[in-house]
Amino acid sequence: MRGLLLMLIPLFATAQTGWVNVEFQADGYGGESTWEIYMVGADSVYAAAGPFVNASYNEQLVVLPVGEYNLVVSDQFGDGICCEFGEGWFGIENTCGVGAFVYDFAQAQITIPFEVLPCPPPLSDCTDPEANNYNPQAYFDLENCQYDVTFRLDLNGPHPSEIDIPEVNGSWNAWCGSCSQMTDDDGDGVWELTASIQQGSYLWKFSADEWEVQELPVGVSESPCFLFDEFGYVNRNLVVDGPLSLPPFCWESCLPCGAVPGCVNPNASNWNPWANFDDGSCSTNGGVDCEEGDTEISVTLVLDNYPSETSFSLENQDVAESIIDVSVGEVSDQIVGIPLVFNTCIAVGSAIEFKLNDTFGDGLGASQWGGQ
Question: Of 121, 250, 291, 341, which residue has the fewest beta carbons closer than 10 angstroms?
Answer without folding.
Answer: 291
